[in-house]
Structure formats: structure tokens, C-alpha cells
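$ run holo --ligand "adenosine-5'-diphosphate" --emit C-alpha cells
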Amino acid sequence: MPEPVTRTVMNPPGLLASLDPLLREWLPRQRWFAGKGRPVTGFTPVAATELLPATGRLGLYHVLVRAHQPLIPAPVAAAPTPGDCYQLLIGVREALPPRLAPALIGHVHQGPLAGRTAYDALYDTRPAEMLLEALRSRARVGGLRFERDRRQKIRTGLVPRLVTAEQSNSSVVYGDTFILKLLRRIVPGVNPDLELPLALAREHCPRVPAPAAWMVADLAGETWVLGVLQPYVQGATDGWELALRELAKGEHFAAEARALGRATAEVHTALARALPTVTLGRGALEHLVDGMTERLEEAVRAVPALRPYAPGLHSAFTALGDLAAEGHTWTAQRIHGDLHLGQCLRSPSGKWSLIDFEGEPARPLAERRLPQPPVRDIAGMLRSFDYAAHSADAPLPGWADACRAAYCAGYAQVAGVDPRTDAVLLRACETDKAVYEVGYEARHRPDWLPVPLAAVRRLAASHSS
Ligand SMILES: Nc1ncnc2c1ncn2[C@@H]1O[C@H](COP(=O)(O)OP(=O)(O)O)[C@@H](O)[C@H]1O
Ligand SMILES: O=P(O)(O)O[C@H]1O[C@H](CO)[C@@H](O[C@H]2O[C@H](CO)[C@@H](O)[C@H](O)[C@H]2O)[C@H](O)[C@H]1O
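-- output --
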């Protein structure tokens, strides 16, 4: 039985001074670090809570820290503003056992923790168990508040393991029953990664695992969402893996794409019931077009290889602006915001679920919570089929086109409207997504840059022709 969190010391003295030089080195190397390309020059503590004192065999600290990054021109598009706040769970031991070697942050040489070893405690069993216990028992620990939906039973004794897949955040699976996503870059306010799954649960939408518990910090009159616990879809394969597997076998994926289209439409329909929808008139559409144009300009500054295609890409946005000027309107609603094959899980029985409603991680929270035309999500999925086709060792001609058509047809079956009939909007959204991907890949995975760049070339040519 994991012990509940019992001891809290807010802002333990000297903690950050001990860790500062180590975090400067370690933080930028983390996959989930959002400020890539600019050095970290220091930290401001936002809140630190001692969960276990370092006097014992294991010291444990929950730390919210703002990373200082100098204001130099950002190397790629949509770089976050300086001073992003990160959530860390830091363990401190005399020495690390070999199983925790990948978790090493460093050996502390100064301050009250000098002589000890700091590590990312999410890799460790006991700290992960303590988090689950805190969620189960609705604990309050300093400024940390753990909440749960009492209708979902959370058993004790579930064995934790850290998910090692590439992620924007960090997740721990408990006994193949629950998965806790700890958000890494955190912001104050309502987080769509909790808000939307809760809204969908209220609508009894079976396509999204309903939050079982969540963890927040109450700081200076604001609530910061720190983590969400959801039922774990056992034995699931994500759409990206599955698509690549089928491609490797030379198989088509249209039937699954159609099912994914239906699942997306079910989620959109439920979101439109659960949360307000709005009509986007001329002003709002001009704003949308301006946003897409700015994003393109920013991406061109950051990735000069985009420059020759900018006029062709831009024409997709002006075409949308022209329709708005003619008086066309669109309905907007809350959407997923960053939908791609990796956000779709297929259970062994063939049921598709959608996960990760955080939206595009680099966008400001307020923007991520705005109602959007649902075609934005569809554009994301269409791009994803293209990504998969480009990532295959042996390309299958027509594979992506067949998936794209089947996905739209599946969507139309449920939603009653085929996204392809909205060609100008769909094209603008797909172009915007490809531009976003160029920025994303340049920052996180430069080797992947050719994939969205190939799409950019195609999209630019189709707009200018
Ligand atoms: N409810 C779930 N059931 C099974 N696996 C899940 C579930 N939620 C997330 N995962 C797995 O964890 C990974 C990361 O989750 P995700 O929400 O996409 O995190 P991030 O925002 O960090 O990318 C997913 O790719 C998926 O493999
Ligand atoms: O899953 P996240 O919320 O972290 O989303 C980010 O990372 C994705 C990659 O992991 C990125 O998606 C891009 O690559 C996918 C293949 O790995 C592809 O299926 C997507 O279509 C493509 O956009 C996503 O853009 C980014 O926000």
C-alpha cells in the first residue's frame, strides 16, 4: 500500500540554488522542453513543495519553475515566449540504482542537497505510486490539489511504469488500468486537455477516455492544471503505428481511415452539443486569415527554405478571405486542435478513441480554447495520412489519397456533411497545418523537415495554378 503524502514544505530553502546548474544542462535536453534553440540562463521558482524530506533515503520535491531564456530572435516559428513554466518531480538520493540511470539530472555540488544525486522521479516507482495515492485520496499538499471523479474506482496497488514514447509531456501507466499525463509546460487557466474530455464525458461520448482524476495547483488566485488520470486503453495501437505497419505490409488503410472519420465526427458532434458554437462572420474570418498569414511569415523567417513557396501558400489564405468578403460564414465549435494519427488509439476490438486535447502545444492557451471550424481537425488528419505515406520505406502510390477520401467519407456518414465540399476552407487549413509542421519539425525533429516541406511544395503549386 503506497503511503499517502504527509509532509509539505512550501519553497524549501536553497532547493533551487542546489539544482540550478544541473537544470540548466538537463532541462533543454528533454523532449518536452518547449524552448529549444535558446539557452536557459536561470530559473525563478514558481512553487516548490517538499513531498519527502531529503534527510531520508529518498527526498522528493514537486517543483514549478520558470526557465529564463534570453530574448534573441527565435530560430524557428512559433517559439514560446521567454519564461515558460515547467512542472518537475525531482527525486534526491545518495546514489542512483542502475535502473534509474536514464532519469539522472545530475550530482548536486552546492546548497543543502550537496553530495546527493538529483533525478527525474517520474521514472521511480515510489514517487509515481505516491501521485496515484494522492489522486485516489483527493489529497491537498501545499498548493497542490488532487481531485477525482468518484464514480470511477481507482484501485490501490497498481504498478507504475513511465511511458518512454516521444511525447510533449510525460505519462505514467498504472497497472495497464490508468494513465496519468503530467503536463510539463504549464500555464494558468482552464486546460483543454482536462476541459474537453470532461465535457465529452458529460455527453457520454464513448470515443474519449473520461478523466478519472486530475491534479491542479492553486497559485496566486489562479488554477494551473498539472495532470490528468484517464482509463488506459489496454493493448491499444495508435493510428500512426498501425498505419506504418500496414504500409510496411503493402496494405491499404482505407477501412480504418473511414472508421477514424466516423470517430472524429462523433467527437465533433458531442463537442458541439457540450460547448458553445459560434458563427464566424467576416471579421472573425479575417482574423483567422490574418493568424494563418502571420504564422506563415513567422515560419518563413525561421525556415528560409519556405520562402520560394510563400506566395503560393499565401494564396490559399487569400482565397478564404475572398469568400469571407463575399459573405460566406462558417460555424465554429470547440475541436481537438492537434489531431493526427498519433492521437488516435485503436483497441484490440477495433474501437477508435481520441486522446490529447491539449491543442498545438506552442499556441497560447486562450487561442487553443477558441471555437474553430471543425475542418481544422480534418486537415490535421489529412496531413497525417500524408506523413505516414512519406515515412514508409516502400511508398505505395495512392495510399494517402485513398485514406484521405475514406476519412472524409466516414466523417460525412456521421456528421451529414462532407468536409471536401468546403474545399477553400479545407485547403487553407491544410496549408496552415503544413506550415505549422515545418516550424514544429525544425524545432523538434529537423530530420523530419522534408516531410512537411514536400507537402508545402505541393500545396503551393496547387494554389498558384
Ligand atoms: N487513455 C490511453 N490509453 C492508452 N494509451 C494512452 C492513453 N492516453 C495516452 N496514451 C499513450 O500515451 C502517449 C502520450 O499521450 P498524449 O496524450 O498524446 O501525450 P502528449 O501530449 O505528451 O503527446 C500516446 O501516444 C499513447 O500511446
Ligand atoms: O502529439 P503532440 O501533441 O506532441 O503533437 C506534436 O508532435 C507530433 C509528432 O509527435 C506532431 O505531428 C506530426 O508528426 C506526426 C508523425 O510523428 C504526424 O502524424 C502528424 O500529422 C504531424 O503533424 C504534431 O504536429 C505536434 O503538434
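-- notes --
The mean pLDDT is 92.
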